[in-house]
Design brief:
Mean pLDDT: 94
Number of strands: 4
Distance between the termini: 35 Å
Largest sheet: 4 strands, antiparallel
Order of helices and strands: HEEHEEH
Number of helices: 3
Low-confidence stretches: none
Strand order of the largest sheet: 1-2-4-3
Helix content: 25-40%
Amino acid sequence: MPVEPLSHKEIEDRLTELPGWSLDGDRLTRSYRLGSHFAATAMVVHIAQVQEELDHHSDLTLGYNTVALSVNTHSVGGAVTEKDFELARKVEDLAPGHGAH
């Protein structure tokens, strides 16, 4: 089944189910603050594993104790699709405290 871009309304509706995630231009974004650099690094490794399983990858930024994600679907011209929300939900599931800020 081909992946279709979501409308702005569909994106806004889905974002209500993912506190902390937002739309920044044409990308879903989220930042996490963790207890240490090691914890942030471990989270990046877990996110990378999920992305490999989904065959869908975000831009990841590792800071001292932060992890930031930014994602859209390149195959549909850089629009937000259900694939991006699937990745976001899986990242939330593995985040310490299910969405630590």
